[in-house]
Amino acid sequence: MHDVAHVDVARSQAEPSSDWSAQRKTPLSAITDEIARRLLLTALSRGGDAADLFFEYSDNASYSYEEEKVKTTSRGVTLGLGVRVLQGEATGYAYTEELTDEAMQHAARTAAQIAASGGKAPPVDIKWPPLPTFYSVPVPSMAAPPEDKLALLRRADRTARACDSRIVKVNAGLSEEWREIRLFTADGRAYRDVQPLVRFVVSVVAEQSGDGNKRQGGSSSGGGRYGMEYFDAHSPESHAQEAVRVALAMLDAKEAPAGEMEVVLAAGDSGILLHEAVGHGLEADFNRKKASNYADRVGQPVASSLCTVVDDGTLSGSRGSINVDDEGEPGQRNVLIENGVLRAYMQDALSARLMGTNPTGNGRRESFRVAPMPRMTNTYLLPGPHDPQEILASVKRGVYARRFSGGQVDIQSGDFVFSLTEGYLIEDGRVTAPLKGVQLIGNGPDVLTKVSMLGNDFVLSDGSWTCGKEGQSVPVGIGTPTVKIAAITVGGTKA
Amino acid sequence: MKAAGDVAGLPGSSDERSVREIAARVVEQAVKAGGQSAEVVVSRTSEMSVRVRAGEPELVHEAQSKHLGLRVFRDHRSSLTYTSDFSEAGLVQFIENAVSLCRLAEPDPLNELPGRDELLPKDAVLPDLHLWDDNALTIDAAAAIRLAKACEAAALSVSSALRAGHGSSYGRSVGVGAFACADESGVLFCGSNRGTYQSQSVEVLCDDTGGKKRSGSYWSGGRFVSQLLSPEAIGTEAGRRALRRLGAEKIATCELPIVFDPETARALLRTLAGVIAGGAIYRKASYLCGREGTVIASPLVNIVDDPLIDRAPGSRGFDGEGLPSRRNVVVQKGVLQTYLLDTYSARKLGRKSNGCAGRSGAGSPHVTTSNFIMEPGEISGEALVSEVSRGLYVTEMMGFGFNAVTGDFSRGAGGFLIVDGKLTQPVSEVTISANFDDLLKNIDGVGSDIDRRSSTMAPTVRVSKMMIAGK
Fold it and tell me: Which of A119, A295, B30, B357 has the most CB atoms around it within 10 Å of its CB?
């Protein structure tokens, strides 16, 4: 019943990459197979089940525009090697920011301390298996002249100011990353991937004098693994207009109702629901340790039969897409929940080995400074059978949730929240008064069983979502069709 | 297991000298390379952390890192750059790039180093705040594993219903840092500091109905090893916290008095810190714009930002722009005395900085609290609860539901229902909401039980009413 092709059309065609990124020389270019082999030998000198070397070069720039001026320009490079040695459930980890023989060997020796089962033979031969290409960026934004990016910020600023005289502050920012990783595993695999990322944000403050001197903020952001071509489809003007629209719409926001009621989540940003309600709870580490309330529930119903939830690292250009994860598994599309039944967890290599299954391409890390963990990529809900208008029309009194700023989950209990920044009252099937921002709170498996209607209008959010877990941040994507939840608690102030 | 890591490589007093020398050299070179003025932060940090789960080591993590962040000014244009490459050749290239990046910014007359009369003098004697503990280095990975094992074992011994959760961690960070600024006349100020910090935490689980797990965690931390609670005390508290959550459920939607425990009260204080920062004020991104000198909270509320407390986690001898550290009274008897300002936000508001700039390597200086403290009252936390006939005692909050521009505050919450002055059934999956302005003004009790573990310190706080959304 779910049309998988709806999402598949967004998939990229693999292309060979003979481009700017492929030719760029970085300090990582000097890391030969022989150097890697020697480091792996040291890492495994005391034994261990597995080891890997994670080299990272990350070139970052950001530009901010405020008060009609280019306010700050920033540029920095992060470079380093993380060495990991695994033995049983234990991880030894060390990193260095100096790629000298001495410093790298020291890191490998430090990580090796975790093991004590005697030496192991090093890999005989390092092979470079081919990788898929889910983000083909011939010219990353980093390679474009900075002046072009400043021009985008100016366009956003001018548009926002020209939209409405009540707009009193405009900030615009562009940040970009060009991340090269080189990965060597003790079983002799090596990978190089370049992961470009661009992010654009406009935020405004609207002020209305008289009548209590109301003020309200609004913002719009987007981006992904694109070059400057991102702005062909998502102009600075469109982000500026969206930020202004939200600020003005919410200027007159009324007190939101409090208590359980019907809620309709708009397509796109509402994917935050999945990320919090099921995504984190399906990360394998929590399930291996039986800390998640989804532990031991594979094969059981955990959601309404309307729900098919996918984590997909292969979407073309999306922020969470990865050609290869941070421990050597190619990006994959994994069905987590199929027609309401729990099918699989998101695995990294460690949890997969301990649970006797295969890694799923979800082993990600913030940087070379930390070991990978099971993490989401792009998590979305496949579209359903209902017309979005029909969904709204079915609600007598409830809340229409359009935009969110973020969410959080308590893995153990499954309780989660997500923060509404643009919402409206629904009265007799019609969207009426704007509501002040509130939290929606629910319990993961409980809320998903209450998904009573699902739209046929899937949208992948063009947001700039970042997922945090144990202090590590990674870029992710989210998406949903319009979703109706029969009952969820709305954290308003009005009884 | 043998201690890993090279103790000789840990930052010490000679490293403090060396980062100070690098800082001074880099700002001087930046001025020579074409900047009119420049400032730099340099740091070297050594970190060690271990985690034990179900009695076995799960992670041993050790590393040394270094960081240099440079800001160069030229014709009121500035650039911000950072690197971890301290080699001579690397730094020369880095400085050149930083100077040339200035051309992209647009001139802003306020974008300059602090006034020469505001900066600390070049050879200022900095206060010794006792932020370094030699004993920190005596805890190696093997010792840390022993402490973590003891802590988890203590937690699990509280009840047979408990099992391992995330495990028990011990972490230690040892660092040296330096700051320097210069103009065409030479180095204006160059200061350095060094500090230690260690913490220990544990989380355990118990199984509740419906597949739900209840976790209990607790932690202790401080600049001195001797400031930490014993592993046994930390573990016992975590075990108790997990068990008391069993059977937590939603309550009906209603308006009730709310008692925030010191940990959740700290989150309220963090929320306030964000909306009194100079940057939020001049950007009009705070509901407290134009409210200096007015009542923003109950008369019971007194708040200070004090960087000069001996051995405290947020203490600093100078601020992130080289200004002397000073104690600022922020709220006195409910009246907002001052915003927290760095140089740029102060100039935007036509003022002088009050020494609240913080500076991380990768970002511009911006307002950062030091030790941000709600001063304790005279009545115990238990007494504040005992006066409530029906209310909610909040021990956890979730989510980011705060609109800084309007002050609308709505967060997920968990805790215990208060009935006739006593904590009764555990509560979960509710939200608590109010406008933050009303919330602060409705504070009708401040406890004496201040929690000093982190740089934001709060006691128990009682609010006369908030809307609770539940069933």
Answer: B30
